[in-house]
Amino acid sequence: MLKTTAKYHLGQVLRHRKHTFRGVVFDVDAKFSNTQEWYDAIPEESRPAKNQPFYHLLAENDESYYVAYV
After folding, report:
1. For residue 7, is it within any domain?
2. How many domains does the chain have?
3. If 23 and its partner were Cys, which of 8, 38, 49, 57 is the partner (CB 3.0–4.6 Å)?
4. What pTM, to 2 d.p., does this model score?
């Protein structure tokens, strides 16, 4: 059995490397757990691997706040 370790922990505040938002981690999936449609909407050249941790963030930018899955 392979053990996956998340890089970030619950409650940690993060700033996205590419996009202008920050957020607090409130849940972690050990691997991709969203829909295939959501995954396919990501441009292929920047699509992350499915077998890595994905984070649920309560995110905010200059205009609003929302839930992000990264």
Report:
1. no
2. 1
3. 57
4. 0.83
